[in-house]
Design brief:
Number of helices: 20
Radius of gyration: 47 Å
Distance between the termini: 135 Å
Number of strands: 21
Strand content: 15-25%
Largest sheet: 7 strands, mixed
CATH architecture of the largest domain: Up-down Bundle
CATH topology of the largest domain: Rhopdopsin 7-helix transmembrane proteins
Number of domains: 5
Length: 723
């Protein structure tokens, strides 16, 4: 038995030393330094065990034992660090340093074992019949703590090895992984045997360390355990989303197939020379569709020298996932076509808008010139009426462009209020009836009696939807009628779905143009309908508003016979008493007028100042104008008294908001002066933002006379002529 132990001991030393040298000579790779330290620890254990075996005294034997524990305490830690690094599973730094500290404490207990009973409860030196002495050591609590650490560490090692997939991949990779796994499994078995008491006088650590080194030595030398290039190649081949198959030309055996190839073509596992590589893939026509994905198979030949001639040695088949490339190509084609269509639509829109804007502008400029040259008041009055009509057309065009801009930027919001439905219909009938009559058409409005009197929703946008649909019908109808039908389709306790139909007897829409009806900048048959005014944005705005209100819109059309638009829109059911108070609008007669007031206009544009002064003066106001916010503040500081200030927003040096805050800080009566923002910035949300800044009211340019009148009434009041 002693002879066997000696052979194991000496063999262990040489094997561990050889493994240390071989590992140290390898280029740095995954876990190389930790594997080297593992074998260094194994070498220390073997040397120390040999020294203990040949010791002739208790003291010498005890020194050898302590030396052995330098390796024993750290071998499992380095093995764990190696397997976590090799598999790239990783180890928490805090856990690693915790194990180091734990082992240092245990090692300190070993080193002081003669003075305490923590690691060994007793130390005896027994002389055998052969004359050789051995140590008989009683196990203390720290010994069992170290043993537990070893058992847990080995199990942890095995778990990480399995989790890291060391036994997956090619044949060589599987053998290499098995050796890595066996490097821990055999020591585990030996340790369990020792703990169960089957070999009480035999220290299993030397044999365990030797077995571990042998496993690592074979894995390194024969199967390229630390060959970084080979490992990287294998990792790439195993993890790639493309399939790879290598087939021997002689026997047509599959030499290698990565996991993806096996998944895509499971029949390759059964190919043992019965089918050639060409037969396998020609049956697929080099195209493979599986699980909704598209693959292409490309075959290449590996040429080698045989008897001085180049011959095919093997075939390599790559299976490429072309799904993304196909999708990307299709998407790029689609985007290119969409971009071209958008560019064409934009070009057409700009050309059309140029015409639409220049037409009313030509009227405005022309009638203005004629009015300047005329002395006849009636003729001048007619010219001015035409100018106003052309200005209204131009303003509608601008508002449509602004609306579509707000929609695309996500700044368009619903403003829900209680409103009287009958009043909305009355306004539509009045406005659109006159327009239809002018075009020689009949306007028919059919409203069912089941629609609630009061509704809750965005009245302005609902009115714009109906106005746009009716206006569209009137524009494209030469003779006949335009009909508006509204009825209740669905009703709940708090909401009602309005079913809206707008039908005309107009020119209709060709079927080829159906997909573009709700598109931006679309106007069909431009050559045929060149005389029809419009931006091509109306229906796109209608669709956006309908969807914002939780509804949907469709259409039916027969070319040459007419079109019917169908929309379903949800509205809340309002109550009269919940309707917010409207600003008082005074109906003027001979006995009522606005109280006169002193008005200060602040605007950097001369024409804007003249227009505002002219309108206010015609309404009996004493209006003066300054061209900067600085001038305004100077007048107020001088003690000039005003009833209302109309302040422009965008001005040089100091804008309207800055001027507002400066005035509010002046104190006294001046700080309480009503300040109305008069601006051309009518983007959605600006009014609310400016009111929040501290303005008392908001008016947009061009000035609406009714809105201006309401502001003056609010702050100046009205009086009767006879008072």
């Amino acid at each position: 038995m002693e002879m066997i132990y000696t052979i194991i001991n000496m063999a262990g030393m040489y094997i561990c030393f050889a493994c240390c040298m071989i590992v140290a000579a390898q280029r740095p790779s995954y876990g190389q330094k930790y594997l080297m330290m593992t074998n260094v620890c194994a070498f220390i254990i073997s040397v120390a065990d040999a020294l203990e075996f040949f010791a002739h005294s208790q003291g010498a034997a005890m020194v050898a034992v302590k030396m052995a524990y330098v390796g024993k305490m750290h071998i499992m830690l380095f093995a764990l660090l190696f397997v976590t690094s090799f598999t790239q599973v990783g180890m928490n730094r805090k856990i690693a340093w915790g194990l180091v500290c734990y082992n240092v404490i245990l090692l300190a207990a070993v080193m002081a074992s003669e003075r305490n009973h923590w690691f060994y409860t007793s130390i005896d030196y027994k002389i055998l019949e052969s004359g050789r002495g051995i140590l008989v050591l009683g196990k203390g609590i720290f010994f069992y703590a170290w043993t537990a650490e070893m058992l847990i560490g080995i199990c942890w090692y095995c778990f990480i090895a399995i989790k890291g997939g060391v036994m997956k991949g090619s044949r060589e990779a599987k053998i290499r992984g098995t050796l890595i796994f066996m490097a821990a499994l055999m020591p585990l078995l030996l340790l369990v045997i020792f703990m169960l008491g089957f070999m009480p006088d035999f220290d299993p650590m030397t044999l365990a360390a030797t077995i571990m080194s042998v496993c690592f030595l074979i894995a390194v030398k024969r199967y390229g355990l630390l060959d970084v290039v080979q490992l990287a190649q294998e990792r790439v081949l195993e993890d790639t989303k493309d399939g790879l198959i290598i087939v021997d030309d002689k026997q047509m055996n599959v030499l290698y197939a990565n996991p993806m190839a096996v998944t895509l073509l499971p029949q390759i596992k059964e190919n043992k020379g019965k089918e050639t590589i060409e037969q396998i893939f020609h049956a697929q026509e080099n195209i493979l569709d599986k699980d909704g994905r598209h693959y292409e198979i490309r075959i290449s030949r590996v040429m080698g020298n045989a008897r001085g001639t180049k011959e095919v040695q093997a075939y390599i088949a790559w299976i490429f996932d072309m799904t993304f490339i196909d999708q990307y190509t299709s998407e790029m084609i689609r985007l290119k076509e969409a971009s071209e269509q958008a560019s064409i639509a934009k070009t057409n829109f700009l050309a059309h808008m140029s015409h639409e804007i220049r037409t009313p502008m030509n009227a405005i400029v022309g009638y203005s010139n004629m009015a300047l040259r005329s002395q006849d008041e009636q003729i001048i009055h007619n010219y001015l009426r035409n100018i106003k009509e052309a200005s209204g057309t131009l303003l509608n065009l601008i508002n449509e462009v602004l609306d579509i801009s707000k929609i695309e930027s996500g700044k368009m919001e619903l403003v829900n209020v209680n409103y009287l439905f009958e009043e909305l219909i009355h306004e539509l009938r009045s406005m659109m009836g006159a327009q239809a009559g002018k075009a020689g058409l009949a306007l028919i409005i059919e409203i069912t009696d089941d629609i609630p009197q009061w509704l809750y929703g965005d009245r302005v946008k609902l009115q714009e939807i109906l106005t746009n649909l009716l206006n569209n019908g009137i524009k494209y109808t030469r003779a006949g009628s335009v009909t508006l039908r509204i009825q209740v389709r669905e009703r709940t306790q708090e909401h009602v779905m309005l079913h809206i139909e707008v039908e005309d007897t107009g020119i209709g829409i060709e079927q080829k143009n159906f997909p573009y009806v709700f598109g931006k900048f679309e106007q069909f048959d431009r050559k045929k309908n060149y005389q029809i005014e419009g931006s091509g944005l109306g229906l796109s705005i209608v669709k956006s508003f309908v969807e914002m209100m939780g509804g949907h819109i469709t259409f039916e059309s027969e070319y040459g016979k007419g079109t019917r638009f169908i929309a379903d829109i949800w509205q809340g059911i309002g109550e009269k008493e919940e309707s917010p108070e409207k600003e008082e609008v005074v109906q003027y007669d001979e006995s009522v007028e606005i109280c006169p007031g002193k008005i200060l206009i602040v605007d950097d544009n001369d024409l804007n100042c003249d227009v505002a002064k002219g309108i206010l003066s015609s309404m009996g106001m004493d209006a003066i104008a300054v061209h900067s916010a600085r001038e305004c503040i100077t007048l107020l500081e001088e003690g000039r008294k005003y009833d209302i200030i109309f302040m422009d927003h965008m001005m040089p040096e100091m804008d309207g908001v800055e001027a507002l805050h400066a005035i509010r800080k002046m104190g006294g009566e001046v700080s309480q002066l009503p300040i109305v923002l008069l601006t051309a910035n009518a983007v959605s949300g600006v009014k609310e933002e400016m009111i929040e800044e501290g303005f008392d009211a908001f008016l947009s340019k061009p000035i609406d006379i009714d809105e201006l009148r309401n502001v003056l009434i609010r702050y100046l009041g009205v009086r009767r002529m006879d008072s």
